[in-house]
Structure prediction request, 139 residues.
Amino acid sequence: MTGPRIGMSSPVDVAFVREASRVEQARRIGTALRNVCRMPGVRVDAARLVISELAGNAVVHGQGTTVGFRIRRLVDGQVRLEINDHSPSATPEPQTAAPDAEGGRGLWLVDALVAELNGTWGFSADGTVAWCVFPVLGP
Prediction:
């Protein structure tokens, strides 16, 4: 089986220092979906929130010094986002957080937003990369 075919002429591929203050940088870079991929604004907003949650998890739970962020437009009209924390780990699962907990809802939110975008998401086998794939245009 071959991997997805890349169709974007200028993919986004950056790394940022693993610091909480850099999550906003990843979210801003996600705005490239509007310009480079010609994605409608409402879908960009949902995708930026997915990026924010996955990048935030990489900052909090990763152990490397940097976090990688990649956007690719696939030839089948879909977009693939990847966040790489360079820290092999067990594959996380969405959890139910206590009502008064300050965290613990991020993956649940990712799951809901990616479903709203009519996409799929998951983690690499070694837990270093969180990814999602969804259509540029809505259903």
User: Anything to note?
Assistant: The beta strands are 12-17, 66-73, 78-84, 120-123, 129-135. The CA atoms of residues 8 and 81 lie 13 Å apart. The chain has four helices and five strands.
